[in-house]
Amino acid sequence: MNKLAQKGRMIAIRQLKITLIIIVLSVLVNLGMFGFSFAQSAALGGIVALLPNMLFAYKAFQYAGASASRKVVDAFNSGVKLKLVLSAILFALCFKFIENLVLPPFFITYFLAMFAPFVQAVVNSFTINQQ
């Protein structure tokens, strides 16, 4: 893996770590305030958000650079497709097989996890502008 791809992968790993922290905090808040079934639903919402993003990050940052531009585009496109398919499968599995799924914590944690990369981008932009 070249240095440019490695840099992109490190950014993606940082975003995934921030997402994981947000998920854990949501699970703990739900556990403390509402009990196990809410915390379990929050955890499942986080997993539905995190796993497809991990797969996308792996696929999207396999290649980098001008000499590999076609590979970059193909890897990104396949990563997006796999992310969407995995997301749909995970949603379907949760809705079909989890009997005590509580929807508010499930979707709130899902949306918080999906929003995490945007927050990191804003923070990074603010930090870069301050330097």
TrEMBL record:
Keyword Transmembrane: yes
Major localization class: membrane
Pfam families: ATP-synt_I
Keywords: Cell membrane, Membrane, Transmembrane, Transmembrane helix
Compartments in which it is found: Cell membrane
Membrane topology recorded in Swiss-Prot or TrEMBL: Multi-pass membrane protein
InterPro entries per UniProt: ATP_synth_I
Keyword Transcription: no
Transmembrane region(s): 16-36, 42-61, 82-98, 104-123
Name the UniProt record assigns to this protein: F0F1 ATP synthase assembly protein I
